[in-house]
Design a protein that fits this description.
single chain; 99 residues; alpha+beta; Alpha-Beta Plaits; four-stranded antiparallel sheet; two-stranded antiparallel sheet; 4 helices; 6 strands; flat
Length: 99
């Protein structure tokens, strides 16, 4: 199965803490709390809708047909992105939803 490995760097983007938090929330989601923590709500990010692997920090592996969505979000925040197509090992195909 073909997939795309996406490596990204935010250091050169010069993002404020607020912008970095906004990107993290759009990408990974967050837990929303209300009424002094009495109620919690899980807010989904982009990666909740896209099958992915996250082998290490700042590296994502997604199905090739969904890579453009993830790369577009990262580039919108000024991240430096390196992406290449890779062939997954058979044990990783199941994790990514391809097998």
């Amino acid at each position: 199965m073909l997939a795309t490995i996406i490596c990204y760097d935010l250091a050169s983007a010069g993002l404020s803490d607020r912008a970095r938090t906004r990107l993290d929330r759009e990408l990974y989601g967050w837990t929303d709390r209300s009424n002094n923590g009495r109620y919690t709500y899980e807010r989904d990010g982009l990666l909740h809708r896209v099958s992915h692997l996250r082998p290490v920090r700042s590296v994502l592996v997604v199905a090739s047909d969904r890579a453009g969505t993830v790369i577009g979000l990262l580039e919108r925040y000024g991240a430096q992105v390196f992406a290449r197509e890779v062939v997954l090992a058979s044990e990783d195909e199941g994790k990514l939803g391809g097998g």
